[in-house]
């Protein structure tokens, strides 16, 4: 069985990696599971490297001394672009959160101060407010998925729908509350931080679909109704989505 590495061990390894291969970095931030104390024996190391200038931002996965390291390489301009133009419109800011939650292992300077200030401001600003169209799209997708789940008599199909529905419901609740969303385990963490009771209800509904389909269908219907109500409720009749006129091929 692989031994669980301590944060101090991971930090020392990251310091050595930066010293050997990325000595020009003006900041190196350990983020992810090791920064939040949620690491497992196989957790990779998320490491954001900041340089004075890069021709283009890039990411890379390497193996260093037997450890998987996920590298995210930026300068201030590319970091700002990714946070504001790539991540934020989708309601998720993983790079900014990595900096806010993480530790810089390079001697701090004005570049790191600017990086951290930008990350903090991004996180504090919250996600863009959902447009009317975005809200309607989410309500419609949830309503139709819930119908598929409630009508299902096939456990495997029901579980596939429930997995999709979980993400849509959690995302809508977070965005409607002005909170950043997430993906995978980060989605649950964001939801739990925002509303622990609802996170537990949604988790319970998901588990019930696997163990007692009828009970799971009922539980999902209840939690979906609670999440949809503030957003305007279920939506089927009256939903329309015209395609742009130029979407045609002669």
CATH architecture label name of the largest domain: 2-Layer Sandwich
- Give, in spatial order, the strands making up the sheet with the most strands: 3-4-2-1-5
Q: What letter string, H or E per element, gives the SSE order?
A: HEHEEEHHEHHHHHH
Tally of alpha and pi helices: 10
Radius of gyration: 21 Å
What share of residues are in beta strands?
5-15%
> What top-tier CATH class of the largest domain fits best?
Alpha Beta
Number of strands: 5
Contiguous uncertain segments of 5+ residues = none
Topology-level CATH name of the largest domain: Beta Polymerase, domain 2
The CATH superfamily of the largest domain is: Beta Polymerase, domain 2
Distance between the termini: 60 Å
Instruction: Label the structural class.
Output: alpha+beta
Overall pLDDT confidence:
94
| Largest sheet data | 5 strands, mixed
Q: How many separate domains make up the residues?
A: 2
Question: Quick one: overall form?
Answer: globular
GO molecular function, one term: nucleotidyltransferase activity
Keywords: Transferase
Domain Polymerase nucleotidyl transferase: 25-54
Protein name: Nucleotidyltransferase domain-containing protein
């Amino acid at each position: 069985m692989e031994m669980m590495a301590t944060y101090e061990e991971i930090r020392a390894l990251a310091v050595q990696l930066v010293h050997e291969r990325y000595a020009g970095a003006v900041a190196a931030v350990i983020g992810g599971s090791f920064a939040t104390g949620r690491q497992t024996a196989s957790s990779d190391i998320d490491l954001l490297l900041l340089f004075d200038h890069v021709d283009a931002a890039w990411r890379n996965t390497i193996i260093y001394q037997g450890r998987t390291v996920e590298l995210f390489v930026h300068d201030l301009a590319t970091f700002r672009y990714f946070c504001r133009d790539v991540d934020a419109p989708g309601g998720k800011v993983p790079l900014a959160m990595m900096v806010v939650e993480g530790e810089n292992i390079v001697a701090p300077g004005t570049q790191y101060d600017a990086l951290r200030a930008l990350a903090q401001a991004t996180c504090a600003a919250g996600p863009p407010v959902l447009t009317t169209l975005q809200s309607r799209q989410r309500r419609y997708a949830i309503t139709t998925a819930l119908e598929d789940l409630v009508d299902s008599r096939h456990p495997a199909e029901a579980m596939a729908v429930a997995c999709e529905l979980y993400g849509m419901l959690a995302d809508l609740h977070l965005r409607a509350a002005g909170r950043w969303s997430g993906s995978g385990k980060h989605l649950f963490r964001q939801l739990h931080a925002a509303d622990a009771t609802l996170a537990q209800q949604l988790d319970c509904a998901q588990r019930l679909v696997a163990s007692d389909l009828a009970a799971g269908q009922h539980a999902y219907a209840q939690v979906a109704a609670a999440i949809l109500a503030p957003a305007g409720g279920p939506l089927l009749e009256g939903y329309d989505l015209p395609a742009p006129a130029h979407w045609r091929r002669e």
